[in-house]
Write a structure and sequence with these properties.
- The chain has one domain (5-95).
- The protein is 56% helix and 4% strand.
- The protein has helices at 11-40, 55-77, 79-84, 91-95; strands at residues 49-50, 53-54.
- A hairpin with a 2-residue loop joins strand 1 and strand 2 (53-54).
- The termini are far apart.
- The relative contact order is 0.05.
Length: 114
């Protein structure tokens, strides 16, 4: 996946936009797999287990499941954010209070008067 059209302009741009993020993803995935395998063992955390599976693994999967359900609920309730990445442009500006800016400094003296 190419992040920007200009990522092939120079070696530095390629390394910073393609290679390093890709390497980061691979390393984080390896750490995720190793931690997941380790957390299956009840001795990894407190020693507690449910059905022979470590409590650390069960809690981790539970938190991820709660986050997934929350994400689905929010995507239904706040569809514009998930569809376009942010609120519609101009929405916040149209509801914002207009402020009348006067050319005065903090002392109340008009600008330009000596």
């Amino acid at each position: 996946m190419v992040f920007s059209a200009g990522s092939r302009e120079s070696a530095k741009t390629f390394v910073m936009t393609i290679f390093m993020p890709g390497l980061d993803r691979v390393l984080l995935f390896i750490i995720l797999i190793k931690t997941t395998i380790s957390s299956l063992d009840p001795d990894f955390g407190s020693g507690a287990d449910i059905g022979g599976v470590g409590l650390v693994f069960i809690m981790g999967v539970g938190v991820l499941a709660i986050r997934l359900v929350t994400m689905i609920m929010m995507s239904v309730l706040h569809c514009p954010f998930f569809r376009w990445g942010s609120a519609q442009r101009g929405h916040a500006a149209s509801t914002a209070r207009k402020i009348d800016v006067k050319p005065e400094n903090a002392t109340g003296i008009k600008a330009g008067s000596g």
